[in-house]
Specification:
Blueprint: E1 7-11, E2 16-18, E3 27-33, E4 36-39, E5 52-53, E6 58-59, H1 61-66, E7 73-76, E8 80-86, H2 90-96, H3 98-124, H4 134-144, H5 148-161, H6 168-181, E9 188-192, E10 195-198, E11 203-205, E12 213-228, E13 231-238, E14 243-244, H7 246-251, E15 258-271, H8 272-281, H9 283-307, H10 312-326, E16 337-338, H11 343-349, H12 354-366, E17 370-373, E18 376-379, H13 382-400
Antiparallel strand pairs: 1-8, 2-7, 3-6, 3-8, 4-5, 4-7, 9-10, 10-15, 11-15, 12-13, 12-14, 12-15, 16-18, 17-18
Helix pairs in contact: 2-3, 2-9, 3-9, 4-5, 5-6, 9-10, 10-12, 10-13, 11-12
Length: about 400
């Protein structure tokens, strides 16, 4: 048992608390007094509430809990006193003070929603808004793509939440057509009160619909996508141990993306009632959830950095580096790696229109460091990939400084 004694640290005005990229991230801070400013080499979200911190605010949590390098630089705006919390102390801290976990989860939800919306806004070139009537357009998209199980789910939810809207008659017409194309549409089976098995291509939840369940993947994979008209963006492919749906639970907001089973999937389902019980009685599970969310935020930030790379080739290369970072695979000279996805999936990850995405991947494969082996994308030298991407990042930082 680590001794539970939190340390107070003081910084004078303009003192640097830590710098972006630092691997010394074994703790996070709570502001006891004073103000702290957060800056980044590349500002990816225009949200002052995330960058100007005051008494009671937390920072450095994502890097600490994910055991990743710092995502930002923290500077004391005034003489400041901070409470330093070591990673090893966190479980005991939330055991003694449940509100700490809830405050961190609310902060995480805010960050994830801001990051996901920014990624989609940049990719689709339009602002993001939540409206259950958009479920109809999502249903049409899936129907046109001949993804009938997803279409049936979206139209069903549309008629549920918007029964008197203008497109309701059309939605019922689509549902009638889908009865012939999809006589039986079983999405999941309830194995226990907390465990569900979702079948391949089933939707767990759809963008814009309300929801209050959190899912932790026990077996299988889940695709997280966003849809606007004919455009579909693959935000992530989640694996066993990953968590999804937490933003709706914490903030009581509509779903911000669509989750689709990628093969049969078994999930642990946590609703608001049993979640609050877990916060009070099982802090180790809450800590696991926060660890998973920290990892997601760190990766989402890297995806936002990726959207700032103007050159499609550089963007494709960085996407591959992000996949290595997600799996914590160290880059090294002459160290090759074959990914578990092909060129089609890589195009979807880029968040570009289809034509530009295909062109980016084509240029990538013209480089001798990349090839396709047995249908999977492969990098021949991960160190060369790292240096290539660092060159693009350096240029972006220089351009941002004028």
């Amino acid at each position: 048992m680590v001794e539970f004694k939190l340390k107070l640290v003081k910084f004078t005005r303009d003192a640097m608390i830590y710098v972006e990229g630092s691997k010394n991230s074994g703790n996070f801070y709570i502001i006891k007094s004073g103000k702290v400013k957060i800056t980044r080499n590349l500002e990816v979200v225009d949200d002052p509430s995330l960058n100007m911190l005051k008494e009671g605010d937390y920072f450095g949590v994502v890097a600490c809990m994910s055991k990743r390098p710092r995502l930002e630089t923290a500077t004391a705006l005034t003489d400041t006193t901070l409470i330093s919390v070591q990673y090893e102390q966190f479980e005991e801290l939330i055991r003694k003070n449940n509100s700490v976990a809830l405050k961190i989860l609310k902060l995480y939800s805010q960050k994830l929603r801001s990051f996901d919306n920014a990624i989609t806004r940049i990719s689709l070139k339009k602002p993001i808004s939540s409206n259950p009537e958009a479920l109809f357009d999502i249903g049409v998209h899936f129907y046109n793509e001949q993804e009938y199980k997803q279409a049936r789910y979206a139209f069903t939810q549309y008629t549920k939440f918007c029964p008197n809207s203008g497109n309701s008659p059309k939605a019922f017409e689509y549902l009638e057509k889908l009865k012939t194309k999809l006589p039986q549409a079983q999405y999941f089976t309830q194995q226990t009160p907390l465990v569900r098995k979702y079948f391949d291509q089933s939707i767990l939840f759809c963008e814009h619909e309300p929801g209050d369940d959190v899912f932790i993947i026990q077996q299988g994979k889940i695709k997280i996508i966003k849809i606007s008209g004919e455009n579909e963006i693959l935000l992530a492919v989640l694996n066993p141990g990953d968590i999804l749906g937490e933003m709706s639970l914490i903030e009581n907001q509509p779903r911000s993306a669509t989750a689709v089973a990628f093969g049969d999937v078994v999930t642990l389902v946590i609703n608001k009632q049993n979640f609050m019980i877990m916060v009070k009685n099982q802090p180790q599970i809450v800590m696991k959830i926060i660890n998973l969310l920290s990892e997601r935020i760190w990766i989402a930030y890297r995806q936002l950095e990726n959207t700032a790379i103007p050159d499609p080739f550089g963007r494709a290369a960085d996407i591959l580096l992000i996949q290595l970072e997600k799996m914590r695979i160290e880059c090294a000279p002459r160290k090759a790696y074959r990914f578990d996805f092909g060129t089609d999936e890589l195009v979807d990850m880029l968040g570009l229109d289809k034509e530009k995405g295909l062109e980016a991947v084509r240029k990538l494969l013209e480089n001798s460091n990349f090839k396709v082996q047995e249908g999977k994308v492969m990098v021949m030298d991960t160190d060369t990939l790292f240096k290539m991407v660092e060159g693009y990042r350096k240029k972006i930082r220089q351009d941002s400084l004028g």
